[in-house]
Task: inverse folding
């Protein structure tokens, strides 16, 4: 049997290259949250890796849930670890306080405690979040490493402060992955989710879609209270911090509210993203 010469097959290979070009893989920079937020982000990251994309996970050295020393995970994606001025136990204690209250105490607490306790926890998380922001954005060596890596896109859990600001500084598009927020605030403010307080309970309330008058009243007050607290937090903390980094009149908390061009909010059900380019 006589095989054709390579020269005669050259036009066929050229045509195959035109009609079936090689797929380009992307390089993702991931900002994971903690605990269940990390589990959600990890599922997305592993699917990206399965599709031959490259993923780098930026994680603080005090992370209580991301095991960046895992050889099994390191074989799939890269970990870029940076130092922060707080310990793993500091973060773990705050998160345990939040989990204990939201899962076991909130539904039996007074209405005042349902607002004051989360506000106290939010203040502690905000302080740690700002320290983590400084550890990223004011670390010139880290930012230079991120620029040199030539990422294509940032994937972010919005519970992580300043990941969106890092994306802005690097000039990269941003994808948000949100599991849920306290009081369903981000789902309502960011995702424009239709959540009537008469039959959709706010997280973490243990109500069903058939609520009594009292439960509906508590649900409405929870929606209102968490919205007010979130707006106050965004305006008094996030806005001022972003202004310190970017300067007056620059990107502020709007990015946290997902109104920035190129921002897409991954939610469930009939919720949609806003600010899509």
Result:
């Amino acid at each position: 049997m006589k095989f054709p010469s390579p020269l005669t097959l050259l036009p066929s290979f050229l045509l195959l290259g035109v009609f079936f070009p090689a797929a380009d893989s992307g390089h993702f920079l991931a900002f994971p949250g903690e605990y269940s937020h990390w589990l959600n982000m990890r599922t997305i990251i592993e699917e990206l890796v399965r599709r031959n994309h490259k993923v780098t996970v930026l994680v603080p050295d005090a992370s209580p849930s991301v095991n960046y020393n895992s050889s099994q995970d390191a074989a799939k994606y890269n970990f870029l670890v940076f130092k922060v001025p707080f310990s793993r136990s500091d973060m773990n204690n705050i998160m345990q306080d939040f989990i204990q209250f939201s899962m076991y105490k909130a539904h039996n607490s007074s209405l005042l405690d349902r607002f004051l306790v989360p506000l106290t926890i939010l203040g502690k998380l905000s302080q740690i979040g700002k320290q983590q922001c400084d550890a990223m954005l004011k670390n010139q060596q880290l930012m230079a490493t991120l620029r040199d890596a030539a990422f294509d896109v940032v994937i972010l859990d919005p519970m992580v402060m300043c990941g969106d600001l890092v994306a802005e500084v690097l000039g990269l598009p941003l994808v948000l992955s949100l599991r849920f927020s306290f009081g369903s605030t981000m789902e309502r403010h960011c995702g424009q989710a239709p959540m009537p307080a008469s039959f959709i309970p706010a997280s973490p309330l243990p109500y069903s879609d058939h609520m009594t008058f009292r439960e509906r009243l508590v649900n409405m007050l929870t929606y209102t209270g968490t919205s007010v607290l979130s707006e106050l937090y965004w305006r008094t903390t996030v806005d001022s911090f972003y202004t310190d980094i970017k300067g007056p009149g620059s990107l502020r908390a709007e990015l946290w509210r997902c109104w920035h061009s190129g921002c897409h909010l991954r939610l469930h059900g009939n919720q949609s993203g806003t600010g899509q380019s």
Notes: Residues 190 and 206 are 23 Å apart (CA to CA). The longest strand covers residues 54-60.
